[in-house]
Amino acid sequence: MWRRRVFTLVRYFSSEPETPSPPSVYSFLQPSIFAVRKPQSKQAPESNNQTPKPVAVDNQLTPNLESTLQLSLHENNTDEAWKCFKSLSSSSSSLLPSKPLINSLITHLCSVRNDTHNLKRAFATLMFVLEANPEVLEHKTVETFLISMKVTNGAPAFALVKSMFKNRYFVPFSIWGNTLVEISRKTGRFCDFLEAFNENCRIAKEEKLDSLKPDLSACNAALEGCCHELESVTDAHKVLDIMSLLGVRPNETTFGYLAYLYATKGLDKKIIELQDLVSRFNFTDKTIFINNLISGYVKSGSLQSVFTTILQSLKESDGKGLNFLEETYIKIAKGYLDQGTIKDLARLILEAQKLESTSIPTVENSIGYGIINACVNLGLLEKAHNILDEMNTLGGSIGLGVYISILKAYTKEQRTTEASQMVSEMCSLGLEIDVTIFDALIDVCMSSQDFESAFSLFRDMREARIHELMGSYLTIMTGLTENHRPELMAAFLDEIVDDPRVKIGTHDWNSIIHAFCKAGRLEDARRTLRRMVFLQYEPSEQTYVSLVNGYMNAGNYFSVLMMWKDVKKRGEKSLKLDHGLVDALLYGLVKGGFFDAVMEVVERSQEMKIFVDKWRYKQAFMETHKKLKVSKLRKRSEQGEMIQVLGFTLLVGLCILLSFQPVTSHGVHSFSKIGIHQVTFALSDAAYVKASPAILGSKGQNSEWVSVYISNLNPSNDDWIGVFSPANFSDSTCLPENSRVSPPYLCSAPIKFLYANHTNPNYKLTGEASLNLQLINQRSDFSFALFTGGLSTPNLVAVSNTVAFVNPNAPNYPRLAQGKTWDEMSVTWTSGYGINEAVPFVEWGRKGGDQRLSSAGTLTFDRRSMCGAPARTVGWRDPGYIHTSFLKELWPNMVYTYKLGHKLLNGTIIWSQIYKFKSSPYPGQNSLQHVIIFGDMGKDEVDGSNEYNNFQRGSLNTTKQLIEDLEKIDIVFHIGDICYANGYLSQWDQFTSQIEPIASSVPYMIASGNHERDWPNSGSLYENNDSGGECGVVAQTMFNVPSDNKDKFWYSTDYGMFRFCIADSEHDWREGTEQYNFIKNCFASVDRQKQPWLIFIAHRVLGYSSSLFYAVEGSFGEPMGKDSLQKLWQKYKVDIAVYGHAHNYERTCPVYENTCMSDEKEHYKGGLNGTIHVVAGGGGASLTPFAPFKTTWSIYRDYDYGFLKLTAFDHSTLLFEYKKSRDGKVYDSFKISRDYRDILACTIDSCPSTTLAS
Questions:
Q1: Quick check: 817 and 1042 in contact, CB under 8 A?
Q2: Contact 105, 79 (CB under 8 A)
């Protein structure tokens, strides 16, 4: 029935001009080795009885060429494969390779995306094979090629299909048809597709090949080309004839294209017949048909027909609205506006509103919204407003959809004032605005700091009786907080405090108080507190934390005392102390000297089991009260008497603090505050954690940022996120310390942690937070766990998805070090490959020269190698494998490149990136030489994690300055207290990652410090717990130094004109010991004519320091340090002795037996007559205060972070510089100028004693 109706309808129309031929395929191909005949436009295919071409015989091919072709394809050697194919095809016999081989070649050439060169080769090969013997082609090969053509202009695809028809190679339409449809839609080649379509259908009919029968999608694509591109009625009817003959049933899209064509041509009678036909087909959705019909009317300029069609369609839809495409609305708007008929457009919207019922699904489905929104999308917002004004002039009621579109545009362009006025107008008309519109507008107002408009909109929300006010309320409060406008927050809160729809709590008042305190407006903050209490809101811990911090910043410690009294008055029932409040109160009370109150806070804290960091408050006392009466004492006391008085003065202040905890070693790791053994499992559906991305290092990088999203229905400011690696940290994998001790609930401490509110101040209010954390490759996967209950009593409530690096075992973090001879460099790195999995090695050589391979040794250690907790328990983490290779027979001062490799058992090699270094100069070589020395740097996190005690906050600055100055650095000495892992082994990876840019480029020499070595009964001189159970094992394995025995960490190394003697201050150095003899031999064996600059290095201060803890002991350095070694320093004329341990900077005069041997301070000429002692322990760890007086031998002191730089210009000139880490500038310096004879000259106790006989 449908065929008769359609073809009765279309038979009246005359033919249009023929379709132009497609462009020449050679515009794509370019000149080729194959002489393919250029296809002629509109050329009919050859006769169907064409004689097939002779088949090439495979066994006649040259065996070597075909084998080479097959091997080249197997090895992905495309150029070689193509070369072989050219040789085969251009031979005198022009024989083809075997069928599998030729198809493999074409498929391979198509396999590289966007490779135009190889696609040209594939196309030329296909055309050649089609001419020579198409039977060897597989259908899959043709399909692969056509799919690859999607990235081109499409011409080769159509040329190939045409050649297939010509050579009678009939591939099923389902293989190539839909691909050509996609290409024609993408490139607009409907004419080309129409030609291929017609030829295909002719062949399908004549050859009776059902496989060539096109589907409906292809027929519609051909019809689309006729209607939209050619606008040819005749060609469109030809397509319909073909559909009828092949039995392809049309759909609504088919009739939609015809409707567009008829409307464009003004064939109204045919449109009526077509509408009748659509009705007879019973299509449930006529949207496509109407969209096309209206588009055609707009194209022809028949706006009255557009008007009539829209209104008629609305009537037929029973007022339920029309689902017009956005493209259709844009065409309608442009059509009317181009003809300047804004009034007609306004009338259309008004008439449409009358027919639209209230049952339309959404406002966005209305005609008014669609047209106005189209104007907005066209960038004609003012025109849209003119339409609105015209509608008002015509006197009709304006629907919500018209306003909403303009309102959204105002929101997008942040025209908040106009938006606010429009909302007021809408509310006055009684239009109901959705709460999401209000929320979006208020959010934009706050972002653009248009607070007045935001307040106006919120008033409109309240007057419109909208119930969901909390979202916009929080937006306003958050915006005012971020913009530091506490006075507006207070006024806003006063205005809405009685509205039951807004749930105001103590936290809202706290936000205002906190903002006032931060701005220094303490009276306003106190006034807000009184207003808060008057309205019967109970102050919380956070209320007092903000006030106390505000008073402290202002130096008003008496008000801090008043706050403590207020807290006591409220009692435990109404106010419970937390760690934050205790910390703030203690710090303020100590600074103010209210020690009775300090003890009250401490006692209350102990009752409530709140941890108190006493060291911090001792430092606060010393920083504030260290100058107490010192100026008077200096006038009337000698140095010895001052020390006694100082001890008494400190005792008076410090006894209060020392009474509740003995003095412990500074540098307690933040992880030790986490109650791992106290963890309880409270996994809840009310909380979740999600981490993204899940796969890291996809581009080979060894560090990447991860976003962590947190949601918790019961949030608190004590909630924190722990990063665990391996990701499985359940107790099922825990091992007990011994048979009598049960394992903890968690096997290990996290590798880092961060409070949930770190960057989300409203977390306690919203329960939502987003954190950014940096992860490094640590040979295992990661997970993120959410804990409540603070650090001391954590409750595990949620665990994230797993995150992992692509290759967690990859070689990383190389550390260079001087070898035992000047021409040797060792490189040490970490990986996850054991000796049974891969062979480690280094490929290295002169930059630009031949490369060689050097094998590497592999070490590791297990839990049993640790001496105690936490390294043996919750701090344990598998260290992976530590590899060291020795690069020998280096040429002096040459640049070498190297990369780390692991050859797996299957032959695959895993490479690192390429690094470079400059080899050491020959001992005594006269060249510019730069040396960096510092101690006690530790590590810090760029993401702000591990924030509990903020102990190593200067570390990143020191690292940053060294990296920036790396081109002028030759060697680095990090003289102890390396990373302060203190038994938490994951931190060593973090540290080696932090220093990688430095340690991979220059020798990074370390010395042993107390935080690496000290542990009771482990052989260390000091039997304390500073190493956290590592007892030297980790440092000695992670870093290589040229020592004979790694446990005896003393060694010497030469660098050009320098001799460095590095002592191990954690082992006995006193006279008669093995180390004493080493130090003596190191000094005595140097040739000072070649290496004039003799430097002594140790971690602890074996010389001179006026740091407070040394001053209190009265030794001004390690006890017995100077007594044992100063004779050696003096005898062998040691120039400079450098130490760490005390976290500050101090330089002495050239000193011997507490006496300055020179009055010079900046430029020493000739012999020094003593040794200059320098403390350089300000690498990054928390600073150490000085004694409140200056000794006679101390020249320069600095309570800041910094490092030393020694520059040897030649054998006679050395420059010493002290640079601060925060800016890299020089703050102290001196120069030594002398000749070799000055070193030979005798000074006090530097030459053999003489007698009258001699």
A1: yes
A2: no
The angle, 0 to 180 degrees and rounded to 10, between the axes of the packed helices 451-463 and 470-482 is 160
Residue 109 neighbours by CB under 8 Å, 6+ apart: 78, 82, 118, 119, 121, 122, 125
Model confidence, pTM: 0.54
pLDDT at 814: 98
Task: List C-alpha distances in Å: 541 to 578, 584, 585.
Answer: 7, 11, 11
Q: What tokens does 59 get?
A: 């066994």
Q: DSSP state, 670?
A: G
Is 595 in contact with 656 (CB distance < 8 Å)?
Answer: yes
Tokens of 926: 């006269």
CB count within 10 Å of CB 1251 equals: 5
| Main-chain phi, psi angles of 438, to 5 degrees | -60, -45
Distances (CA, A) of 1005 to 148, 361, 1037, 1051, 1097: 56, 73, 13, 10, 11
Rounded to the nearest 10 degrees, the angle between the axes of helix 252-265 and helix 233-246 is 160
Among 42-46, 679-683, 834-838, 881-885, which stretch is predicted with the lowest mean pLDDT? 42-46
More confident residue, 794 or 418: 794
pLDDT for the residue 143: 87
Please report which confidence band the pLDDT of residue 211 belongs to, taking 50, 70 and 90 as the band edges.
Answer: confident
Distance CA 462, CA 442 (A): 13
User: Tokens 């019809």 identify what position?
Assistant: 223
Tracing tokens 């006692």 back to the chain, one arrives at 603
Q: Are 219 and 258 in contact (CB under 8 A)?
A: no
**CA 1162/CA 1172 separation, integer angstroms:** 12
Q: CA-to-CA distance for 383 and 376, rounded, in angstroms?
A: 8
Using one digit for the tens of pLDDT, what is the confidence trace for 246-288? 888 888 888 888 888 888 888 888 888 888 888 888 777 778 8
Per the CB < 8 A criterion, the answer to whether 243 and 6 are in contact is no
Q: Is the peptide bond before 500 cis (omega within 30 degrees of 0)?
A: no
**C-alpha atoms less than 13 angstroms from C-alpha of 980 in its C-beta half-sphere:** 26
Start-to-end C-alpha separation, the chain: 138
Residue 249 half-sphere exposure toward CB, CA atoms < 13 A:
6
Environment class of 523 (CB within 10 Å of its CB; exposed 0-12, middle 13-18, buried 19+): exposed
Tell me how far apart the 2 most distant CA atoms of the chain are, in Å. 143
Window from 386-390, 902-906, 916-920, 1037-1041 with minimum mean pLDDT = 386-390
Residue 887 has pLDDT above 60, yes or no: yes
In 3D space, the residue among 664, 770, 625 whose CA is nearest the CA of residue 712 turns out to be 770
Asked if residue 691 lies in contact with residue 708, where contact means CB atoms within 8 angstroms, the answer is yes
Average pLDDT of the chain to the nearest whole number: 82
Span 976-1001, pLDDT tens digits: 999 999 999 999 999 999 999 999 99
Instruction: Tell me the HSE value of 899 on the side-chain side, using a 13 A CA sphere.
Output: 12
Given pLDDT bands bounded at 50, 70 and 90, which one contains residue 636? very low
Measured in whole angstroms, how far is the alpha carbon of residue 1247 from the centre of its chain? 62
Distance CA 642, CA 1111 (A): 11
